[in-house]
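step 3/5: co-fold with manganese (II) ion
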Amino acid sequence: MEEIKKYVETNKQRFLDELFELLRFPSVSADPKYKGDVLKTAGYVAGKMKEAGADHVEVCQTAGYPIVYGEKIIDPALPTVLVYGHYDVQPPDPLELWHTPPFEPTVRDGKIYARGACDDKGQFYMHVKAFELMMQTGTLACNVKFMIEGEEEVGSANLGIFVNENKERLKADVVLISDTSMISMENPSIETGLRGLAYMEVEVTGPNRDLHSGVYGGAVANPATILCKMIASLHDENNQITIPGFYDKVVELNSEEKDALNSAPFDLDAYKKDLEIDAEWGEKGYSTLERTGTRPTLEVNGIWSGYTGEGAKTVLPAKANAKISMRLVPNQSSEEISEIFTRHFESIAPDYVKVKVTAHHGGEPVVTPTDSIAYRAAEKAIVDSFGKAPIPTRGGGSIPIVALFESVLGIKSVLFGFGLDSDALHSPNEKYDIYNYYKGIETLPLFYKYYAELSR
Ligand code: BES
Ligand code: MN
Ligand code: MN
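step 4/5: write tokens
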């Protein structure tokens, strides 16, 4: 521990400078205009991985953005840790809400503000630096394989193919991922589940053209009104989802599991205050932690129709669209849910409109074990570094590839995240505490140490 602290202390500024350099690349995977930047980011990551001491570093081409791979095999008899992360980020818009530019990392009050600061550049880069530290201090206790991808924020479709085609190369005993949150630095926690996702787009069409809303209004159905009604009908008075069969495979937690989940420190008043809402909302009969961690949900992610420009235009729009996604829990299948959503949405369309439903990316839910050697190693690492045992929690977000690591490679993951829910992931002014960054770099080597010890 002393040696680790000393190495971090000596290299503090450089660790920060390198992360800043990484954050300056606008590696937005969703928008083709950033293509050159995303590719440059992969090159930067590969270079840093090599500098840190990894062998066989390769920028692996795919049909989309490349995967950066590198490894250090010190002894085939030792356990192997597969580190996964992503160098792509979400689009930065709305730009006008950022206090400082999203791709010009800025420190305020001990926090790094930049798109990707927490999700996931700040977090995966801790692994590169922890690896450097273990190499430099001669303390690397396990074999390591790195797989840092560039398409997580758009569904990881090509990584799925890569994993299927590289089963031998990716052989490992555990997948280690820092791309999730902790409750707080005072209450360290480890997420033990991720929700799945089914992402849909719908289009409701009325007349064959936009109409004068005075001449035709009241006599022709308005697709915007109909779409809103259809969407509103997807939740009932208890805020349960009304799609037939939606809950069929959902497993209820037993009362012991519920108690454990609800015993995690959570301050509803602080939560409401942070979001400036007067009341929370959700499925009747469940707590906020249950709603986000263990229950499936349906959200409108975007909705548009008609005239949205300056001033007023009296128009009856010809069509209305929405993006709608559902978060899934064990044992829901994203394909099945996409299908029943499509069938249901088509069935509730009245005669006076036409409806088109298309499916975007999806992903399966996962629950990670808390009785594994890897989980115990993470627990011990946190005890040493935070002076407190981590609380197991269920996360509301999704990392679709994690389910594939399990189904294709047969490897379970440890979600060793150091972010905070308040880090504004995907929002303007995303941040990552410098404290968390260094804390992560200090804690990860302990995981390797304990994982090797417990594997013996
Ligand atoms: N790192 C997040 C997922 C996450 C965040 C999990 C916080 C737990 C806590 C990841 O980058 C992400 O944003 N995933 C997307 C899914 C993807 C298919 C676009 C998500 O959850 O919306
Ligand atoms: Mn992420
Ligand atoms: Mn994300």
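step 5/5: annotate
Residues 86, 119-120, 152, 179 surround manganese (II) ion (ligand 2) (CB under 6 Å).
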